[in-house]
Specification:
The protein is an all-alpha fold. Helix content is 61%, strand content 0%. It has 9 helices and no strands. Helix 1 crosses helix 3, helix 1 runs parallel beside helix 5 and helix 3 crosses helix 4. It starts with a helix and ends in a 5-residue tail after the last helix.
Length: 157
């Protein structure tokens, strides 16, 4: 997996981890994929379609696999800070922050080596996302009945 793929998968997992994908999240992904140079020359639709199939089949195992992938890629402090920024942007896209999203962010955070001070330097209003949580190493909870196939068809229209 490339860093760009990891960044896009971070966005996908953060919008999917609460069990629903809101219209605002779809708009944010669409904007990222069409206007952000980070995802230029990347077939984002191909990846997202594949991930939707995988998450529908695997449920929480898909999210756990993503968390494991974070530690497999060598990320500089700058790369880690970008990953954090993308995760926060995805979580906040629908203007509603669920505890499951914060908890998932904390699972991401626990796999990064940058300091809380570095994150707060870039995101000073996100201290709540960095507070200790119980058992951040436990598996993500996933409603096995959640399906994203129909929701995604609107994503890249």
């Amino acid at each position: 997996m490339t860093k760009k793929e990891l960044y896009l998968k971070t966005v996908f997992c953060c919008i999917a981890c609460d069990g629903e994908i809101a219209e605002e999240e779809i708009s944010m992904v669409r904007e990222l994929c069409t206007q952000d140079q980070l995802f230029a020359n990347m077939d984002a639709n191909k990846y997202i379609h594949a991930w939707i199939e995988e998450i529908n089949k695997q449920g929480s195992k898909f999210l756990q696999n993503y968390l494991n992938e974070i530690s497999m890629i060598d990320l500089s402090d700058k790369d880690q800070l970008l990953l954090v920024s993308l995760a926060l942007k995805a979580i906040e896209a629908d203007n509603r922050i669920e505890y499951s999203e914060v908890k998932f962010f904390k699972k991401i955070r626990s796999r990064l080596s940058i300091s809380d001070e570095t994150i707060l330097g870039e995101h000073p209003d996100k201290e709540d996302f960095l507070l200790p949580d119980l058992k951040v190493d436990e598996l993500p909870v996933w409603d096995e009945h959640t399906q994203f196939a129909l929701i995604y068809t609107e994503l890249m229209k």
